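User: I'm curious whether this sequence folds into something compact or stays loose and floppy. Could you predict its structure so I can see for myself?
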Amino acid sequence: MAWLFPGQGSQQLGMGKTLAERYPAAARAFDEASEALGIDLRKLCSDGPQDDLDRTANAQPAIVTTSIAALRAAQEEALPGGDPICLGHSVGEYSALVAAGALDLADAVRLVRRRGELMQAADAAGGMAAVIGLDARAIERAISGTSVVVANDNAPGQVVISGPLAALGDATAALKAAGARRVLPLRVSGAFHSPAMRAVASDLRRAIDAVAWREMHYRVIANVDAAPHEHARDFAELLERQVWSPVRWAASVERASADGATTFVEFGAGNVLTGLVKRIVRAARTASVSDPATLDATGALFR
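Assistant: Here's the prediction. I'll summarize afterward.
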């Protein structure tokens, strides 16, 4: 089994609300994270306002907390896990590290709060867009010579680009001329996973080095190299690189499949990642846990 954890953009009002109401373990996740940050994350996720939830410094800890709340609710229901391999998309990699035992939730949310603050401040004039209908190589050719780069290779025909807002318009025109069906702006506040984020790397590394890292119970496939890692010490460098490097999601899912994963379960808001998995590994069995209904449905797969 592979456990999947979504990244920024998955946030939505009400996320985690019904899980926290039904499962004490999920409620405790929100309590732990709220205490660590000194803000009421449960209220923010439930009631917003949306603009506050969307702020990078808020969205990242909210997403991590919601994912861990969903995982703990599943564990409270004794959902089988076996010896899973973990992978998370962008900030979801921090959720994966909590799930694998490398980080405490409190340390993780403090770390991603700092990560979000740094990213939010680094490039207010940057943005990202999803490109539908072209593969990563075709996109790279189309945007060659611009200051826009491929940021996320998510699945065949679904790639995200990142760069200065002033350059995204020209890049969009070039991509449509090259055959892209759609280019959709994303709800983010900067040019994430692009060279613009190199400016935050040293400060982020100091924050990473300041938290307590623990022995990992499960392997985590890293975004930057699409390879499984068994030692927490690997992730100081990997997470520093991740903030300005492309997310190799398609390759990461392919690696999980090659290593034996046949069932992929997504924990957190929505089911975007499981949708991508079906496009990458067509034979995969997928499920998601975002509320009590999806948890019940996922549990039925294993009965």
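Summary: The beta strands are 2-5, 85-88, 126-132, 149-155, 158-164, 182-185, 220-221, 228-229, 263-267, 285-289. The two ends are 15 Å apart (CA to CA).
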